[in-house]
Write a structure and sequence with these properties.
With about 500 residues, the protein is an alpha/beta fold. It folds into 2 domains: about 5-245, P-loop containing nucleotide triphosphate hydrolases (Rossmann fold); about 255-435, P-loop containing nucleotide triphosphate hydrolases (Rossmann fold, 3-Layer(aba) Sandwich). The chain is built from 14 helices and 23 strands. The strands form 4 sheets. Strands 6-5-7-8-4-9-10-11-12 form a 9-stranded mixed β-sheet, sandwiched between helices. Strands 15-14-16-17-13-18-19-20-21 form a 9-stranded mixed β-sheet, sandwiched between helices. Helix 4 packs parallel to helix 6 (about 155-170). The chain is elongated, with a radius of gyration of 30 Å.
């Protein structure tokens, strides 16, 4: 994003906006930060403050702006080691250490600072001299916790921070003050002093990688996206995944029904799959949920559309092998990039990152169908059921407004008789396709029915379902059976099943 001079509707010049160096954070801020202001970036140790600060300075260097990193807590060698882990060079930046090796001598007492810098006023004066010498446009001060310990008094600390703020503003600097929140002094007063506050947080899960997130606590004069936004700290730096807000994403699309590739399944659904709707495929393990989703995806591919398939449970090789054996080969579509399959490890992915992957598939790859297989594994990546429901509601609303057909697979525990799931997502979906096992004449068969459709007048019947070498087979309505959904039906009639020639 380029620095821009924006204007308000009245025509008066507005403030200059600058990039933070992290595209996702710029999106959260609706364009970036206001220049020539002082910001507070706070978070527990290890949250990513130093890396985010380096992003900010290196973005300025890329634009030809002088950058100054003033450090009380880390040495220049340590900062360069952090940068090297991301394959960055800090040669374009100036690093000013307020830490001295002399301060670690035995006669230096408990202070780690040079004797001339022990007093807070002298330390602040040293910061002023460094700024006047470098004349930077961007500054990162690391960290306020050390400055607070020097002050040893809340009023004195506040006055010095205010003095620094006024000095920075007169020098035309955009400043980030880093704070590791290691002291017990209240920082609400600091929130009131600074122009904006960015809070970084990390949460350790019972299993899997830690999940990091940030939020904008305040930002004067900037309309930002509130709430928590997931981010990832990895080799190469920080990637922010802005929280999905479905209301901001709408477009026109053709809502005509599209075939699943199986005529009888289309009849059950009342005409097929409708763009801008979601279908929840529910059933016990092994009933054919994934195979049905693959058949629907293959039909879209045969129409020339692009499909994104998020695979949580099984491997890509297993899915491709099974599809070939059922005369539904997907290999050619993967080779020509019409089918985009991504293996997801829920233990290593945050909900915000997954939502961003979905957006990229729709907006960048032009996918007209999204398959999530399955929600059971996706649920494990969420911190709680309530958050899963909120996340899925927003995600499905976004996909519906984009005219995407969404297929979601949900496995149920139990086989014959009563089955259930740990969480009910049926009310979020637009259509509900249900698989059930039932016993007949000593065989375990599968029944298929549509219990709900918001877009079409669907069949109320129950049909037999089989997976054959030639693909999916759906039989006639099971009118001579009662109690199929319970798993133990009674039969009173002459209707043949698929094994006896139906749909041959």
């Amino acid at each position: 994003m380029q620095n821009e001079h924006t204007t308000n509707p009245g025509g008066a010049a507005a403030t200059v906006r600058i990039s933070t160096g992290v595209g996702g954070l710029d999106d959260v801020l609706n364009g970036g930060l206001t220049a020539n202001r002082v910001y507070l970036v706070e978070g527990v140790p290890g949250a990513g403050k130093t890396t985010l600060g380096l992003h900010f300075l290196l973005e300025g260097a890329r634009r030809g702006e002088a950058g100054l990193y003033i450090t009380l807590s880390e040495t220049a060698a340590e900062l360069k080691a952090v940068a090297a882990s991301h394959h960055w060079s800090l040669d374009a930046l100036t690093i000013h250490e307020l830490v001295s090796e002399d301060g670690l001598a035995e006669d230096a007492g408990q202070s780690i600072l040079h004797p001339s810098e022990v007093e807070l006023g002298e330390t602040v004066e040293e910061v002023r001299r460094a700024v006047m010498k470098v004349r930077p446009q961007r500054i990162v001060f690391d960290s306020l916790s050390e400055l607070r310990l020097l002050a040893q008094d809340a009023l004195k600390y506040r006055r010095q921070v205010l003095a620094l703020k006024q000095f920075f503003l007169t020098q035309g600097c955009t400043v980030w003050l880093l704070d590791d929140k290691t002291t017990r002094l209240s920082d609400l007063q600091l929130h009131s002093i600074t122009h904006g506050v960015i809070e970084l947080d990390q949460q350790l899960q019972d299993y899997g990688t830690e999940q990091r997130r940030l939020r904008i606590v305040k930002m004067r004069g900037v309309k930002f996206a509130g709430g928590y936004h997931d981010f990832r700290l990895d080799t190469g730096g920080i990637t922010v995944y802005p929280r999905l807000i479905a209301a901001k994403h709408r477009r026109e699309f053709d809502a005509a029904s599209q075939t699943t590739g199986v005529e009888e399944l289309d009849a059950l659904l009342g005409g097929g799959l409708v763009p801008g709707t979601s279908l929840l495929v529910v059933g016990p393990s092994g009933a054919g949920k994934t195979t049905t989703a693959v058949r629907c995806a293959l039909s879209a591919l045969e129409r020339g559309q692009r499909v994104k398939y998020f695979l949580f449970d099984e491997t890509l090789g297993t899915m491709l092998s099974r599809s070939r054996n059922l005369s539904m080969s997907l290999d050619a579509y993967i080779e020509n990039d019409r089918l985009l399959v991504q293996q997801i490890d829920p233990a290593e992915m945050s909900p915000g990152q997954f939502a961003t992957l979905v957006r990229e598939a729709v907006e960048d790859a032009d996918a007209s169908m999204i398959v999530i297989d399955s929600l059971n594994a996706y649920m494990q990546a969420m911190p709680g059921h309530r958050h899963l429901l909120l996340q899925m509601h927003e995600l499905l609303s976004y996909l519906n407004q984009q005219g995407v057909i969404t297929l979601m697979v949900l496995g149920q525990h139990g086989l014959i008789g009563t089955v259930g799931t740990d969480i009910d997502l049926s009310y979020l979906s637009d259509a509900l396709l249900v698989f059930r096992y039932f016993e007949s004449a000593g065989d375990v068969l599968t029944a298929l029915s549509v219990l709900k459709s918001r877009s079409n007048a669907h069949e109320r019947s129950i049909r037999e379902f089989r997976i054959a070498n030639t693909g999916l087979r759906v039989g006639l309505p099971l009118k001579d059976f009662e109690g199929v959904m319970s798993g133990l039906p009674t039969y009173h009639g002459q209707q043949p099943l698929l094994d006896h020639g139906v749909d041959e």
